[in-house]
Amino acid sequence: MSLSPEPVPPVGGPQLPQERRLVTEIPGPRSRELSERRAAAVARGVSSVLPVFVRRAGGGVLEDVDGNSLIDLGSGIAVTSVGNSAEAVVRRSAEQLAAFTHTCFMVTPYEGYVAVAEQLARLTPGAHTKRSALFNSGAEAVENAVKIARAATGRQAVVVFDHGYHGRTNLTMALTAKNMPYKHSFGPFAPEVYRMPMAYPYRWPTGPDNCGEEAAAQVIDQIDKQVGAGNVAAVVVEPILGEGGFIVPARGFLPRVAEFCRANGIVFVADEIQTGFCRTGQWFACEDEDLVPDLITTAKGIAGGLPLAAVTGRAEIMDAAHAGGLGGTYGGNPVACAAALGAIETMERLDLNAAARRIEKIMKGRLLELAERHPVIGEVRGRGAMLAMELVHPGTRDPNPEAAGALARAAHAEGVVVLTAGTYGNVLRFLPPLVIPEQLLLEGMDVLAGALARL
Ligand SMILES: *Cc1c(COP(=O)(O)O)cnc(C)c1O
């Protein structure tokens, strides 16, 4: 057992051969050896979808320690949208590493933090004056959005939705809908959190047509009757639900809820941690219905793999928190900020919004074809490079998590990294890097088609 990890391989990034290549079974012997070391040293609560240890990654592939090359349809959960070790991310963060690694922005500031805040003001929806605060993780951003909304409104209640996911810290566990695995045995949870119905078209009792309108009316009625609009500091919502199963809220739902917030002095917070930064074919998913959130939380895709998160929003709301009230030792680390500037540069230079829309066109076509042939696919949905299929028992809408698990395992065994999601665990989701070569996408879909045929 060596003390230091393997020496850093000389070539990563997009120069890696863009191919699926299996030279051992999955996981291979080196990965299995590392899994044994892991089991003896790493807490069981931290688990992995696919216990293949990665050596290098780039473009649309992950190369493991056994020399297998896997097609990446997960992007480390919507993080490496610009690819793994994108040139501008590597260059800018390497320069920053060589200059200095940390001063703590709350002690002595640096330009990169300010530059990221300027980019966020430029890219997020709305022409109003904006401010940002930077953090390390998505959960931390969501917690801070709630702190800020409470300070700005002098109110306490927070409204969230069925199937919502906002993180694993105490407050964000309370905001998250799903018990297992996120909350189970970890309570008590933060108070003053109220959960409302989500406009989930596929499962709406009266069908998808009136779903947006009916769900919004229920939400507004429940807020009025059960919480009192005047007690609500913030409504926190994902414009497309991530862990909840890529549920696209029925059209009209989000604008109606946002309008209600505006009329009642409630801070409307869009949690764009999974949907942001070109993932859905727009900079932010709420642009699709011309929503202008008061606050927006970002993380995941923002910095090409380095840990960074942000809350961005209306200056008068953001500045309600007193000086010294927000921050953290590492929040807006200079290397992570440099990486974010590199990621944004890459998104603009390669027009990754267009890339996401192209991915949608290619993949959704294939997925819809598969849905016609396989009644186990209840619905294909999503936007841009955030696509999913919900699996059911044929002829019903009963969730079929066994099929989702079996398909994911079959894809993994053939060298395609896919993730599952959903309150019922019955959703197979696809989050390819936006720079993935088209032939890898198609090959990934072929593998999936084969697995479906054998199911
Ligand atoms: C991943 C995610 C979070 C939590 O982000 P972490 O960086 O894991 O803390 C919050 N909200 C949404 C919508 C997410 O997808």
UniProtKB/TrEMBL annotation:
Record EC number: 2.6.1.19, 2.6.1.22
GO MF terms, alphabetically ordered: (S)-3-amino-2-methylpropionate transaminase activity; 4-aminobutyrate:2-oxoglutarate transaminase activity; identical protein binding; pyridoxal phosphate binding
Entry's transmembrane regions: none
Region described as Disordered: 1-20
SUPFAM superfamilies xrefs: PLP-dependent transferases
Annotated CDD domains: OAT_like (cd00610)
Biased composition (Pro residues): 1-12
Cofactor(s) listed: pyridoxal 5'-phosphate
Lineage top rank: taxon: Bacteria
Keywords assigned by UniProt, alphabetized: Aminotransferase, Pyridoxal phosphate, Transferase
Pathway linked to the protein: Amino-acid degradation; 4-aminobutanoate degradation
Catalysed reaction equations from the record: 4-aminobutanoate + 2-oxoglutarate = succinate semialdehyde + L-glutamate; (S)-3-amino-2-methylpropanoate + 2-oxoglutarate = 2-methyl-3-oxopropanoate + L-glutamate
Pfam family, one: Aminotran_3
NCBIfam families: GABAtrnsam, PRK06058.1
Family in the record: Belongs to the class-III pyridoxal-phosphate-dependent aminotransferase family.
Name recorded for this polypeptide: (S)-3-amino-2-methylpropionate transaminase
Organism from which the protein derives: Allostreptomyces psammosilenae
